[in-house]
Amino acid sequence: MRTAYTSDQIRAAEAALMATLPEGTLMERAATGLAVVCARMLGGVYGSRVVLLVGGGDNGGDTLYAGARLAARGAGVDAIIAGRRVHEAGLAALRRAGGRVTGLPGGEAATSATTPNGRPVAGSLPGAPGDGVTDDDAVVGGTVRDLIGAADLIVDGMLGIGGTGALREPYATLARLAGDAPGEVVAVDLPSGVDASSGQVEGAAVRADATVTFGAWKIGLLVDPGAGHAGRTELVDIGLGPHLPEPDAVALTDADVVALLPRPGASSDKYRRGVVGIAAGSEHYTGAAVLAVGGALRAGVGMVRYAGSAEPVAQVRAHWPEAVITTLAPGEGVEEVGRVQAWVLGPGLGTGDEARAIARSVLAEDVPVLVDADALTLVAQERSLLRRDAPVLITPHAGELSRLTGVPRELIEARSLENVRRAAAELEVTVLLKGSTTLVAREGRPVRINPTGSPWLATGGTGDVLAGVAGALLAAGLSGYDAASCAAYLHGIAGRRGPLAASDVAEALPETVRSLVNGLRQGRSPAKLDR
Ligand SMILES: NC(=O)C1=CN([C@@H]2O[C@H](COP(=O)(O)OP(=O)(O)OC[C@H]3O[C@@H](n4cnc5c(N)ncnc54)[C@H](O)[C@@H]3O)[C@@H](O)[C@H]2O)[C@@H](O)CC1
Ligand SMILES: [K+]
């Protein structure tokens, strides 16, 4: 399990640890770990060209010390001093190791960046702009632009957990130049411009090929859009572990998911493995029923009972001879369908009277219910339906959650973590919030951040498959919280190789589960290696 923290939690843990250690120890550990990753990214250090983007805080300090190590091993290291201040001991170390230092033209950054002697950064002013002067040059100077453009490795040490709000200049321009440059970009602790505690990005932010983070995962490295800026992530242990609090957010790993997934034993039969009921599809929307049933079957359920009207019944029958089918007359509920251990309610169901009758009857059953899609619209109109003794798992995207909670969609998207947590508490249900990062929340438990999503999944019908998978796991006896987070994890891996249609995701599920289980048995993680 990856545990993730806000910047305040990290700071508190660092303070507690620092109190037990000689000054500078943590920065030393951080810089050592960073230099190791930089060296690996460079392949050969000697003769390589490294540019450090150095902010005014300790993030810049880490970067200068790591740069000093690379310079000592023969890299050509240029530090661009971008902050109003500079970590002086780090700067001195870099100079001693033979690194070069460049300031920025004009503005506070250049006039107040100082050397260890307190003088303005020397040798810093860029050459007079000549041909090919750009707007960027006005902010950072042509010399800096050229240095960044020629670097093999650009180290983003502008902002770490001290960053707040949108990147100010000259950081924003430097972030953009780094993004346009052909060299690899490594972010120190987290990409500058990404909010450590939420993953929010307001304005420009560094897009890193890799991020080396210190002590513990920051939530912003796991939640989009921040996660999308971080590239490959590596955690450097600086000894923070014993000082960290209980996490508010976690991400499952392959091993966690394999441990949670039900596997049939010698005494299993289809009933013990779990029977999932699926109330989905309508005369107009037949595909949702086919996909939800497919997701459930491919996830390895004991049995699927499908209940719906004539048209989707015909489609489900044609696609899935494995499903046991009940045709519902208009207005009829699911009372006579037979025993099920959990229901999936809603994909393609419609929102008219017939759909409402089905929804009421499903929610009146004394088993866990997954409420998705059209059923979310129905329960938004009739909130009392959610008040029941058996567990409820809802699987909305931001728009659907907005209808249920009244919180504007944009706000849910911008502050997804906070809003999913609040929705779970207020509605007293488990919430799986779909988005570029899928989140699963249940009151009293850390929010689970799904690490396996893929943009290829943004295609019609994938949500129906996900509902089927999660329903199958609910029927097998997992809690809503575990069923939702395992389903999102598997679905994300099954959908990572595009282009794909929703039915391809369902089809990829058995192989996804097999490769997770086999990967762990062989001591490797195929899912992670391929991502
Ligand atoms: N505290 C510790 O024990 C350790 C900290 N370490 C490093 O220290 C970092 C945190 O250092 P700091 O607290 O100095 O903070 P940062 O280095 O993240 O920088 C904070 C400074 O940036 C400026 N700033 C904030 N938001 C800005 C924005 N949007 N645009 C432009 N400037 C902005 C502020 O003026 C603030 O002073 C960590 O991320 C990590 O890299 C590591 O050395 C490990 C140990
Ligand atoms: K950074």
From TrEMBL:
Q: Which residues bind AMP?
A: 434-438, 463
User: What is known about what this protein does?
Assistant: Catalyzes the epimerization of the S- and R-forms of NAD(P)HX, a damaged form of NAD(P)H that is a result of enzymatic or heat-dependent hydration. This is a prerequisite for the S-specific NAD(P)H-hydrate dehydratase to allow the repair of both epimers of NAD(P)HX. Catalyzes the dehydration of the S-form of NAD(P)HX at the expense of ADP, which is converted to AMP. Together with NAD(P)HX epimerase, which catalyzes the epimerization of the S- and R-forms, the enzyme allows the repair of both epimers of NAD(P)HX, a damaged form of NAD(P)H that is a result of enzymatic or heat-dependent hydration.
Give coiled-coil spans as residue ranges.
none
NCBIfam families attached here?
Answer: yjeF_cterm
Q: Which HAMAP family match?
A: NADHX_dehydratase (MF_01965), NADHX_epimerase (MF_01966)
Q: How does it assemble?
A: Homotetramer.
Q: Which residues bind K(+)?
A: 59, 156, 192
UniProt superkingdom: Bacteria
Query: Any idea what this protein is called?
Result: Bifunctional NAD(P)H-hydrate repair enzyme
CDD domains on file:
YXKO-related
